[in-house]
Design goal:
Prot_kinase_dom; about 5% strand; Kinase-like_dom_sf; mainly alpha; Transferase(Phosphotransferase), domain 1; 2 strands; about 140 residues; single chain; Protein kinase domain-containing protein; globular; ATP binding; two-stranded antiparallel sheet; protein kinase activity
């Protein structure tokens, strides 16, 4: 569920975008968000995906059932999903933009802001990464 719904009961189209991002990550990774509950290293699927994004190991996220030949498409899906699950609804794209980013490889996808990663104790990093404007790549700059 979207953070704004959990904390304030607010629901909007951006809440649906958040849920879509979680669903997309669950499909790519092959695990439910709830499977991370009680995990010693990661509290949820989003933190797990963000950790791999920041570490430049996005390709390690994919479910083994997904074929290697589609790794660039998988990275693109992870990139879009991480934009969908931003804490602040204002930072999430709308569903039309999400659809366009997923179906058109020529569309430039914005950088994923450095988001909260919760490792046992909550830590917050509110800085953002540099822009990749003019680039059609979906690779993490660290990859």
């Amino acid at each position: 569920m979207a953070p704004e719904y959990i904390s304030h009961g607010n629901f909007s189209a951006k809440s649906d975008v958040y849920s879509f991002g979680v669903l997309l990550l669950e499909i790519i990774i092959g695990q439910k968000n709830s499977s991370f509950a009680g995990s010693a290293c990661m509290s949820n699927l989003i933190d797990y995906a963000m950790m791999h994004w920041k570490n430049g190991t996005t390709s390690e996220l994919k479910d083994p059932i997904l074929e290697e030949e589609f790794i660039e498409e998988i990275k693109r899906c992870v990139h879009v999903a991480l934009l969908c699950v931003q804490e602040d609804p204002v930072d999430r794209p709308n569903m039309e933009t999400v659809k366009n980013m997923l179906v058109s490889p020529s569309i430039v996808i914005p950088d994923v802001p450095n988001s909260r990663i919760r490792n046992n104790a909550s830590t917050t990093d509110t800085s953002t990464t540099g822009s990749q404007a003019g680039s059609s790549t979906t690779k993490n700059p660290q990859e």
